[in-house]
Amino acid sequence: MDTQKISARLTALARAHGVPGLQFAVHHDGRTWTHEVGLAADAAVPVGSITKTFTATVAMALVSDGDLDLDAPLSDHLPSVEDELTLRHLLSHTGGLPSDPEDVRTTSLRRHVEQAVRDLDLLHPPGEGFSYSNIGYSLIGHLIEVATGMSWWEAVDAVLLRPLGIRPRFTAGPGAGVGVVPGHAVNAGTGRVVPVEQSLALVDAPAGALAVSATDLVTFGRMLGGAAPRLIDPAELDLMRTPVRHAEPFGMADGWGLGLALFHRDGVRWVGHDGTADGTSCHLRINPEDGTAVALTTDASSGFALWRDLVPELAAAGLPVGDYDGMRNLNHRIPPPRDCTGSFRNGDVEYAVRAVDRERLALTVDGEPFADLSLFDGLVFAMRDSDTGDTNQTGRFLRDPGDGSIRWIQIGGRLARRQVSEMA
Fold first, then answer.
1. What is the pLDDT of residue 139?
2. Strand 45-46 to strand 280-287: parallel, antiparallel, or no bridges (unpaired)?
3. Which residues contact 252 (CB under 8 A, 6 or more apart)?
4. Is 147 helix (H, G, I), strand (E, B) or coil?
5. CA distance 234 to 248
6. For the chain, which residues score pLDDT lower than 50?
7. Average pLDDT score over the chain
8. How far is Cα 254 from Cα 241, in angstroms, rounded to an integer?
9. Radius of gyration of the chain (CA)
10. Distance CA 244, CA 179 (A)
11. I need a surface site. Which of 18, 52, 106, 298 has the fewest CB within 10 A?
């Protein structure tokens, strides 16, 4: 691993993408190496959805202890929840739950979960598909509270952070914002960089409230790879890293386990998670075979583009890291079938698709222009972002296995189901 080359590229990429600060940490071949640009090594960066992996790990520790069961109905602990839903469904995003409720009317995790499950319109039967869901992780957070008698914040600290030596810092909840670095909105066109405040709702804390350093993430990642301290039985830890049937996170990863995304590179399976908060982008990758753990935290909205540019640079420097590339599956371009167009919903969010011409489709989200779509074999599409013009994201349409009609659209791992009125 050429650390000098990696250091130089990190500094250059931060400048090129307008990123004020980043932390990079890697544990490889028995040693940990770090590099920082504009941030202290111990600065706590909001890591967004990487929080979900911490929440999943607490849940799996409770499974190891016999306090929770992966396949028991959630209604055993949460009477208001559908009998078919299980913890395994929630951890793997296969419960058919929408992503987020638009109207959050409470700061109580218990009441939020009760309201959400009462109003839920499942995207598919539990266990029969994948749709990335923040609501699902709020449910897990409340399940942890019921099982431990502690708040989610107390449980994640007591069960996980404290044993790992990680200082608890959050963007929502007790001590929110204390010791947490601000994010930044970066306008790639003008080069303008503006600090932004975190806006995560209290009830979404189990899905995205943690703030940690890249070194903290590597410590966490090493434990998930099998290093001490051993907080989860080896069998349950292996389940976290094993692909779940029907968990197809198209647009996000190559597969999904229990709280961990799966990435394939050169015959090696990497696991990890990505996370964005307000003005931050963070990434964690673990190779369980050799114990390598890699983490990048950035305090800018352009950090995701930096990560995409960094991954091939890491390979050239002797550190090949697993990542997702949906563009590699695009082969033969096809004209869009007529039944691609229409309105699709994920909870309160509406995705509308219309034909632009014989080869292109236009996608709006809640009435706002989102992307132009170009269709390829397998009903996979490349997306051209309406704001930035970026073309590195992909999605797909999915057909009903019964009648063959297009029933869903999947973008960023989230499913949206065609509205019933259009299918009648």
1. 93
2. unpaired
3. 132, 261, 274, 324, 412, 413
4. helix
5. 25
6. 423-424
7. 93
8. 12
9. 21
10. 37
11. 106
